[in-house]
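Subgroup meeting minutes
Present: P.N., E.W., G.H.
Scribe: E.W.

1. P.N. recapped why we're keeping a running log of single-chain structure predictions: easier to compare across weeks, and new members can see raw inputs and outputs side by side.
2. G.H. added today's entry (137 aa).
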Amino acid sequence: MTGKELTSPIGEVNFFNSKITTENISYHILTITCICNTLLLTLQYNLLAKTSTMDIALKKNQSFRLSVDLIDKLKQLAKRQNKSLNNYVETVLLDAAYHSPNATTLEAMQEAESDLMKHVEPLDMSSIEAMERSMGL
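Output recorded in log:
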């Protein structure tokens, strides 16, 4: 006995030239699920393959001589951020190489280094209220 053919408002429902019935709908749903999963895995594989190829092509091994104390400190800092030593050092170097301060920050840095700031009373940081008072607020 064949199941009842399914219809939609625009007519019978077909999947790969096969009429979908109440009997075979589970099979077709499983087929569609498998096709979607295969496509998803293929996309993920392709993305990973492209990423790996790009990483290999764009990175180069380089050796540096650093003091033991500095390496230990870098390891501690990396561990605090749950990063490998290599990843932490790369992040710090990228930040130093590509993130320069904007004009406002540069102006504030120059002001802080100038004689203008030598005559400013230090802020009282014992509490928020004390800090506000020392700022004249």
